[in-house]
Amino acid sequence: MSEMNTNIERFRRMASDDPDNPMGHFSLGRELLASEEPAEAIAPLKRVIELDPNISKVYQMLATAQLKLKKAGEAAETLQQGVRIAHERGDMMPKNEMIKMLQELGASVPELKSKGPTQQVGEGQVVCSRCGQVKPKMAHAPFSNAQGKQIHEKVCADCWREWIGMGTKVINELRLPLADPQAQKVFDQHMKEFLNLE
Ligand SMILES: [Zn+2]
Question: Which of 2, 27, 102, 190 is buried most deeply by CB count within 10 Å?
Answer without folding.
Answer: 27
